[in-house]
Amino acid sequence: MNYYSLNDSQNKNKANTSFEEAVVRGIAPDKGLYFPSEITPLDKAFIDNIEKYSNEEIAYEVIKQFVGDEIPESVLKSIIEETLCFDFPTVKIEEDIYSLELFHGPTMAFKDVGARFMARCLGYFNRDKNDKTVTVLVATSGDTGGAVASGFLGVKGVEVVILYPSGKVSDIQEKQLTTLGQNITALKVDGVFDDCQDMVKTAFLDENLSDQNLTSANSINVARWLPQMFYFFFAYKQLKAQGKELVFSVPSGNFGNICAGIMANKLGLPIKHFIASTNINDTVPRYMATRKYSPMPSKQTISNAMDVGNPSNFIRIQTLFDNDFEALNKKFSSFSYTDEETKITMQEIYKKSAYVADPHGAVGYMGLKKYQKENPQVTGVFLETAHPVKFLDIVEDTLSVSVEIPEQIKAVMDKKKESHSIKNYDDLKSYLKNR
What we know:
Layout: E1 2-5, E2 17-18, H1 19-25, E3 34-36, H2 44-48, H3 55-67, H4 73-83, E4 90-94, E5 97-101, H5 111-125, E6 134-139, H6 143-152, E7 158-165, H7 171-178, E8 184-189, H8 193-204, E9 214-216, H9 222-225, H10 229-239, E10 246-251, H11 256-266, E11 273-278, H12 283-290, H13 314-320, H14 325-331, E12 332-336, H15 339-353, H16 359-374, E13 379-384, H17 392-399, H18 407-413, E14 420-422, H19 425-434
């Protein structure tokens, strides 16, 4: 499998970037995101009989064409097995509405899968390079940092530097990315997530940092983005027997997760429609209403992992629809919601079903309910992307309940946070050069 830069789409047929190079580089030299040169649908018989396969077998069939022969079959299967060492249950909330819980991994967020998969791929590619250290540079609006820190902890030949916006992640999220030590360093940025992401992108393209061997672990990296397809196949496997068309509502910030779902659909997974549910950072909902893409500075909300003003992966979504707005509009909707609406919905869900939804899941639920008003004959799935404990104060204050602290969170609660403060790109560059 070869990849090409979306900034050079005219040369798609000349794609010559390998999976390894795309993973190690993170972003193309021309600042574009990497995209696979071809997408081959899976055998229909495989999807028709998906309930006969284990999650590991499904994941291997889904990802193998994107890796090609660059990782041996036995190694790739081992990577998948280590990545998928926890459950992905669908939980019935009410008639024809299910929560897909993606928070049963080590950091209790959906990003555990992509981070663990990428870490193991990078570890394989770096296996014989004893004299070469790769630096994973990543921006986080909340859960990415903890997942990347956990996924890459102790990986030989890899240093991780995480940028996060000061005061704009929850206390537990901050603990997860600032307490591990070893090869993990956290940089606290005086700004918002978009500032962190801009610094990371700038660093990749700074010739003065070429000796740092930088790569990204944000969803711009193909090894972080593509494994997220697995969730949608796992949900379909669980709900297939219902015999109804499936609709997914995805809480969306940088749009990597929903983009992976659309990729799963391109591989042949029967999904009727996708809903990108956002908070007041509504760049994509506005685009769908006006056809004008006008990113704005991100605003802080209680669903902080979606506080993204310029979602990187939306260009991949447009590419999956051949940049045809009408085709996109038939398959894809996007709605935005306020913090007040989110809190009311959390209360409604709890009152109806005694289910504790985190703010992101509640936003996904609202988008799904709106779609089902006009399309009542579908089974809807909203993604619960993080455990409610990660937003403990908001959840407990909104629902007047006590959330039990899982073991994964207890492990970091009493640890001391360690981070370095930076204000701008020059500070980041100075840190990387002088560490």
